[in-house]
Amino acid sequence: MARAWVYDRTKDKTYVQAVEKAKQAKRHPPARWMVRYYDPAGRMKSAGTYRKKPDAEKKQTEIENSLHEGSYRDPSA
Do the beta carbons of residue 44 and residue 18 sit within 8 Å? Predict the structure, then answer.
């Protein structure tokens, strides 16, 4: 079953470490929100990371629509 969701990366230990490292180097931290989904073949994919949750939710909606309409095309193909 194809579905998409917005994942909060603050739950990942590696993300928290990357944020701390960026703060120490006085740089911007990596983007927090990640859009993940299962393609029609059942493989988990990522549609990128976003700094703002509304941007991630917009991408989630786009992916869900393409999956449900049958117009989904694998970006890596």
Answer: no
H or E, element range at 17:
helix 13-24
Handedness of CA 46, 49, 52, 58 (dihedral sign): negative
Q: Of 35, 45, 33, 36, give the one whose Cα is nearest residue 8.
A: 33
If you ran DSSP here, which 8-state letter would residue 52 be given?
A: S
Q: What is the pTM of this model?
A: 0.79
Q: What are phi and psi of 33, to 5 degrees?
A: -100, 135
pLDDT at residue number 75: 66
Q: What strands lie across the sheet with 44-50, from one edge to the other?
A: 4-8, 33-38, 44-50
